[in-house]
Amino acid sequence: MNVYQDTTESEERINELIQDVEEKYFIGRSKELTFFQEYIREDNPGQKIIHFYGEGGIGKTFLLHEFARVAKQKQIPFFLLDSQDFVQNVQGFIDHLYQTLACHQNEPLNYSPQISLQDCLSLIDRFQCRVIITIDTFEQMELERWFRNTFIRYLHPSVTIILAGRKPLIGEWLESPAWRKITRQIKLEPFTVEETSNLLELNGFNNNQEIRKIWEFTKGNPLLLTLATIINLSEEEHNRSFNNNIDILTTLTKRWLREVTNEGLTRMVEAAAMFHQFDQHCLSEVLNREIPNQEFYQLTSLSFVKRSRRGWSIHDLVRDAIRIELQQRNPNQYERINKKIIDFYYHRIAKRPTEEDIASFFYHLGDDVIQSVFFHDATFDNAMYLEPIGDHNFHAVEDFFAYLKNNPTMTKTHYFNRTTNHSFQFHSPLVHKQHEQELVGPEYIKKIGYNGSSLLKNIHDEVIGISIIVPVNEQTLPFLATQPVSSAYFGNLTKEEIDFYNVPVEKTAGYYIRYQEYKDPTNNSARSFLLYSLLPLIFSGGKISTSTPLRFYQDLLYKFGFQTVPGAEHRDFETDVPTPTFLLDLSGPKLLPYLKQFLHDITQQQKLDILAEKFSLTEREQDITKLILENKTIAEIASELFIAQITVKKSLSRIYHKANVRNRSHFLKKMMDIL
């Protein structure tokens, strides 16, 4: 049965052609389609109202059109309305519905202002079969109370109502047992990697790495994925690709921001987007005014604002787009707000440090690697948790290491930062992972003691990772001093250092970050979760140490202020170059001075960014330039970067050539003139 029986043959053919193409390109939503197909097979389903909800661009309208095609095949009348298509009053809805029904039944159109609800109900009753009425964009339906308590109540039981909106139904839909019984709510989730791959392959994308990058950029949002098939995200030219990414985000954000109806709310949304997580107090501080409860409720009622582990957060796609737009439109305001946020968290930490405030402080410093690696968005939901290791679950530890042994694999994955358009590669060779499995296992945990070791689990109670952080005290110190990797440092301590670490078991003088591993080496969310869990060590009041040959992790350690320990290198990982030991001393009253140096480093990083852009410096050349600005010698630069002095000299020659100078003194003078 055709919804529009009064269309001409040519229109019908064009419509069928469009539907054929749409059906071919319809990807995913298998659960929702299966539900709908089973639902329409039921003679008299108990649930009369079905509500699909989800974020902007999630594909609600596209899904309804697919339902319409399925209903047409089963000859079920299916009427698709949109709340944006009629005047938001009772008569406006009645008129729109009546014209839609009349077109279907080939009735002469009646434009009389006397059309009543009874006229619509009579037309519906004349079908004498199951009828489906859908309303898209239901969140903009201002007649919700009348629609529920008048229109739906008078419908024949054979009529099904399908709603689609951004927010779940609340109020009487949930509070009334009767409405709750006949209503089913279904949340639409973003596409999985597999669904994304299917869609992109259908549009000519065949490179798995490219597909993965697009999925991470779009977070599986169907609208963004569709736009990505039009604008190739893999273009090599950075500026053009970056502008395209902004265009994609802006398109989606404009759709979401339709909910923001006044200038005051717009200012709040902009400020909230600058936070990774926010609450009413945070916003009041940054906006320099007390935000009333009603205004804050308006903000948190927006569909792209969600509860987070601590307060609220804006959906990451919208957040990134707003930040990019604000930074381009008003860079001074962007920097001013961000500076206020950093100062806000610094002073909160000075009063009483917490894990969340430490994390927020580092996040807002703006280092895109730290933001991407430590603050992967899945880190902040309730999908994972750490379970301390003990006798009761030690069998799970043995199973985990057995799995790693039986499933050897290298790690090669990357992180992507939408706001800077930078990707960061993480690579852990198979040989390194095999060496680690020879050095660390269930016996290591038994000997070191359970304290500090944890299993990483998902919401299904499955073990997906492990973390071994050794608290340093009189019990663990002898063990660390004799074990591979850690002995390079703890086996060569001075008497003064031994006295510092040799505290009673109930105390802790520091922590040794020994091992973190995952079942799925590409699981960036798990990696981010475990790395994020290390942040509380910063305010533990001790010395934090670790050793790794992986450059990716070494760079992260440098970014957090770790220094290499002279004489504590080793070859326990059997690498070509000795592996250094890294140390961060936060004992005593050193926390605030430590954090304060990063406030200074903001300016230093901004200077380095200016030079890097002006002279097209590579990452290695930026590292060397930074140390040149600190007046380090060639030998000191080589030592700090773990490269040969000849490599430093060659890099300096390239830097001088790019800057059009002859030597270091001329280079420094030119830098000072620029900065």
TrEMBL record:
Alphabetically ordered keywords of this record: Transcription, Transcription regulation
Lineage top rank: taxon: Bacteria
PROSITE patterns reported in the protein's UniProt record: HTH_LUXR_2
Record-linked InterPro entries: P-loop_NTPase, Sig_transdc_resp-reg_C-effctor, Tscrpt_reg_LuxR_C, WH-like_DNA-bd_sf
Domain HTH luxR-type residue range list: 610-675
Official protein name in the record: HTH luxR-type domain-containing protein
